[in-house]
Every structure is written in C-alpha cells, then in structure tokens.
From TrEMBL:
Coiled coil: 58-150
Record's keyword terms, sorted: Coiled coil, Signal
Entry protein name: Uncharacterized protein
Signal sequence annotation: 1-16
Record's keyword annotation contains Coiled coil: yes
Domain of life: Eukaryota
Entry keyword annotation includes Signal: yes
Length: 369
C-alpha cells in the first residue's frame, strides 16, 4: 500500500498520455480509458512513455514493470497471509469461547438443577419434619399431662376404696369383739351388731363381690338366736370369712396401686426421654434448615455470577465475530483493489509492448522537434 501511495504521487507528476492521438484506434482508446481508472495502470503507461521518450530500452522497461507487478503480487500474498493468520486466530478464539460458553451453560444448568431439585425439596422436607417434631412435642406433653391427671384420679379412687375397706374391716372387728363377749346378749347388743352389719353393707355397696356375704350375715342376724352358741359360731365364722375377703381385696388394691404407680413412673420416664429426643431433634433440624438456607443463598449468588460470566463470554464471542467480520470486509475490499490494480497493470504492460505504443512515442518525439 505504501508503494501504491508513492505511485499515485508519481502519476500526478507525469504528463498524461494523449489518447486522442490518431495512432490509437477506438478500441485502444477504450482500453486506455479502462487502464487509466487504475492508479497502477495509469502509472505504468505514463512511466513507459517517459522511459521510452528519454531513450530507454523497452526490455529494461518490461523488467522494471515486471518487478513492480511482482511486488504487488507479494503484497497481495502478504494480505492473504495476514488474513489467514487472523482467520486462524479467530477460529481458535471462537473454539475457545464456544467451549467456555458450553462449560458455563453446563454449570448454570447444574446450579439451577441443584437449586430446583435438591435444595428446594430439602427445604420443604426439613420444614415439614420440624413441624412434625413440634407437633410430637405438643402431643408428648399432652400425653404426659393426661397420664398425670389419670394417675391422680386413679390414686384418689384407690384411697377412697382403701378408706371404704378399712371402715368395713373396722366395723367387722367391732362386731367380732361384741360377739365374742356375748353369752346372754341383750337386745341392745343385738341391735348394735345389726347396726354394724348395716354399716358394712353401706360401706361395701359398690363391691358386688361382698354382697352375698353381707346378705347372708343380715339374714343370720335377723333370724339368729344369739343365745344359741351354735348360731353364734356360725355368725362369727361368716364375719371372719368376710374379713378375710376384705383384707385380701385391700391387699390386691394396694398391690394394683403400687403396680399402677410403677407403670406411671415408667411412662413418665419414657415420655420425658421422648421429649428430650424430640428437643434434640429440633435443634439438629433447625441447624439443618439454617444450613439449607445458607446453601440456597450461596447457590443463588453463584447462579447470578454464572449468568454474568456467561453474558461476558457471549459478549466476547460477539465482539470477536464482529471484529472478524470487519477484518473480512477490509480483506475482501483490499484483495479486490489489488486484483483490480494487478489486472490493470498487466493490461498496461501488454499495451506498452504493442508497436502502436512505440509508434505513438516516436510521433510525440517528432512533434516536439
């Protein structure tokens, strides 16, 4: 291109060929017009005329012009070479950026997949598990409270039954003491025994097991002749049998109460252990929820960074493509210009070697003298 600029200056300094000379045919004049549209073609024609006018040899002129054309070919080859290098750089850069974009898109997909299919379901699952643990704690305390209330009610019932049994046993013992003292019982003593039987009946009216004994004693007490020692022994035997039944019942109640209290205490220990486990599980689950929330935040930040990186890479790829497109446009325009100049140069050189050009130069010299 430097030579092209120099040649342009030279062309401006050289007198243009007069194509209207009678030596030239209309075809020649048309060829001249086409050649003169090219800077190199115009320069070669003017240079050839100057060379021949000053006594130069046509062969030398051909050699010099051929060198100039070779230099143009070399410059064009360098243009091709530089564009090939630029194309190679472009292809490598496009491949690199395309691979990085593909890798980044995979990272974006994986991050979104991890967020959508791992973290969010995990968050929802943890929340549901925490809610279940909290419900378990509420139910655990409710169960403990209900068991405590029930135990208190059962114990109160036990104490009531014990009081009833003790009252009945006390009445029996009093009756046995009275009966043991009877030899010739008075009406008052007999009424006292009957009154104790009524008292026993009232005390044990809720216990159907003892109703048969009470009924028997009442019948005996009503019909018995307490002066009859046989009847008296029968009454004593009945009283003693009832006392044994009451004592056995009281012992069973006491044993059942002890067993119920033992079961209750074991149940309380179990419920408190479960409560402690639930509380520990709540602490662990709360930590998991916090870790999940942190991971969600980190993943969302990562997704933002990855999208920004992807935008940058796509921008770089677009910039590279735009730059290469511009370089290609410049290359095509430059190659077209070189081809135009080379074609004109070859046409000009061909014209210089025609006899008419030499005749034209000679005619110009004769006209000058």
């Amino acid at each position: 291109m430097y030579k092209l600029a120099v040649c342009t200056l030279l062309i401006l300094s050289v007198t243009a060929i007069d194509v209207t000379n009678s030596v030239w045919t209309s075809h020649d004049q048309k060829a001249f017009a086409q050649i003169k549209q090219s800077g190199w073609g115009n320069f070669i024609l003017n240079f050839g005329e100057l060379h021949l006018t000053t006594g130069g040899i046509l062969a030398e002129l051909n050699t010099e012009i051929a060198k100039l054309i070779d230099e143009l070919d070399e410059e064009l080859a360098e243009v091709h070479h530089q564009y090939a290098r630029r194309t190679d750089v472009h292809n490598r850069e496009v491949n690199r950026l395309s691979q990085e974009i593909q890798d980044k898109e995979r990272e974006v997909f994986n991050a979104h997949d991890f967020y959508d299919n791992v973290l969010i379901p995990q968050r929802d699952r943890f929340a549901a598990q925490l809610e279940q643990l909290q419900d378990n704690i509420v139910q655990n305390r409710r169960t403990l409270n209900e068991a405590t209330v029930q135990r208190a009610n059962d114990h109160a019932e036990f104490e009531s039954l014990v009081a009833e049994h003790n009252e009945a046993i006390s009445a029996i013992d009093e009756s046995l003491q009275l009966l043991s003292q009877l030899e010739s019982p008075s009406l008052v003593q007999i009424q006292k025994v009957q009154k104790n039987l009524t008292k026993i009946q009232q005390s044990l009216k809720r216990h159907s097991t003892f109703q048969t004994f009470i009924k028997t004693l009442l019948e005996i007490a009503v019909e018995a002749n307490f002066a009859d020692q046989g009847a008296l022994r029968e009454i004593l035997t009945a009283f003693n049998n009832l006392r044994v039944q009451l004592v056995d019942s009281l012992n069973q109640l006491t044993a059942d109460e002890a067993e119920a209290q033992k079961d209750f205490e074991a149940r309380v220990i179990q419920l408190n252990q479960e409560h402690a486990e639930f509380q520990r599980a709540v602490v662990v689950k709360t930590a998991e929820i916090e870790a999940n929330a942190n991971k969600i935040e980190q993943t969302l930040d990562l997704i933002d960074v990855l999208h920004a990186d992807l935008d940058t890479l796509n921008g770089q790829l677009q910039a590279e493509n735009d730059d290469y497109a511009f370089a290609t446009d410049v290359y095509n325009a430059t190659v077209a210009e070189y081809n135009k100049e080379l074609n004109a140069a070859h046409q000009a050189l061909d014209l210089l070697n025609q006899p008419r050009f030499t005749d034209y130069v000679k005619s110009q010299l004769k006209g000058a003298f």
